[in-house]
Amino acid sequence: MLKLFMLLVSMFISLPSNGGSETTLTTATIRASTSAKPTVIYRRIYNERNNTIHSKNIIHNARRIKILGGPTLWDWDIWCQLQPKKGNCTENVLKYYYNADLDQCLTFEYTGCQGNLNKFHTQAECEGRCKGASLMMIRESAPITYCSLQVNAGYCLGLLRRYYYDVNEATCKEFTYGGCGGNQNNFETMRKCSRECQTNFE
Fold this sequence. Notes:
- GO terms for molecular function: serine-type endopeptidase inhibitor activity.
- Pfam families: Kunitz_BPTI (PF00014).
- By secondary structure, the chain is mainly β.
- It contains three helices and eight strands.
- A hairpin with a 4-residue loop joins strand 7 (about 160-165) and strand 8.
């Protein structure tokens, strides 16, 4: 199978006054190892003012685009791929989290403490921050521990036994990995997962 990887570029774009002052544009491209040119497969724009995803036609005006620092990763592309963390308190509050596997925002029960940034009051807020984040590859240098990332089977169709760390149950679990793509919460053995995550996570 073709080996795939992501090229990420973060940009700022100034919108007209009726669309908000500033928003962050992230463009993901996916490239096959046999292809000289990457193909753009998704563009998403988050508008801080009204929590909507704007049409990619907005970016056609190149004069509005200012590239900031090359292939950097927008922080929300990392935070949206965190596992929803319930916490250990006594409340029972319905929140939304981004499911990177489904590219959808779903509900979970939050106990009121020890959560993370993949936690939203409304579905619209969740989708505004995170829709499309599943296409963004997390780099090893990302400023969060990879043990807290959602399980990701990858793009290919293999049937490989792997292990990931579950932040809510504080243990490593088995999953089936396709063989390419995915993220760093992916270990070949239960022992390696436990050593990396159960020992060092908290």
